[in-house]
Amino acid sequence: MRRARQIAMAALALLLGAFAVVALAQPPVTRSSAAVEVRPEIAALESQVSRLDEGPELFEQSCSSCHGFEGEGVEGQAPSLKHAGEAAADFYLRTGRMPLGQVGDEPLRGEPRFGDKEIEALDAYVGSLGEGPAIPKVEPSQGSVSEGMRLFTESCAGCHGIGGKGGVAIGGYAPPLGEATPAEVGEAIRVGPYLMPRFSEGTISPAEVNSIARYVELTQNPEDAGGFGIGHIGPVPEGLVAWFAAVAAVLLVARLIGERLGGSRADDEAEEPR
Prior knowledge:
- The chain has helices at 2-25, 31-62, 64-67, 85-94, 116-128, 145-155, 157-160, 182-191, 206-220, 235-271; strands spanning 167-169, 172-174.
- By secondary structure, it is an all-alpha fold.
- α2 crosses α5 (116-128).
- The protein is elongated and about 110 Å long.
- The chain starts with a helix and ends with a helix.
């Protein structure tokens, strides 16, 4: 923990020194203009150091019992986080999947246990443990719905269902995506949480992630023009529902016809002379 803090403080000192050298090399400026130019950068550096300083303490209190005091992992408890990256920490923490209530349970979505600043601090600390996926910038508005549907069908629908309603996967449960934000979609693609495979930028590019996120947004608020949504559980289950409804209708019509024919025969027999 002390080493991480020392490294962070040393980096801050070097950067502040560099700012001082650059400032001395520049022509004289007024005090107000210098404040406008320097203060944002210093504030950003101080914020980053603050996150790095707070992250180890939060990690030790809430994560170290399973992942180890230095994120090295504990055999039989939890894996190493040395190269998990900020994206993994952000995904698991913001979706409430971590910390786990019981070791060995499948991490399911729930309410986050930490606030935004605490999550940012933990993200920064886990990211400092080793090179790993960064938090992606996902922009669904830049994506294509048709391309997103194609990519989702090829790589995601087998477990999550074409409508993103979730389903049973081998060895676990693929959750519904009704609450997934675009950032969480991008993080899951890069991280591969739990049983989900991880997709690199060479397999699914950032532009394709935008398209998948846009399609997921569509599944969250689909249009039901011309019919009933039936829970938006996908074309195959909805087709089965349609078949059951059709069979029930045929049986009902057959029964009504049978009752009419039976009634007509009874009337004819009553009218016949004895």
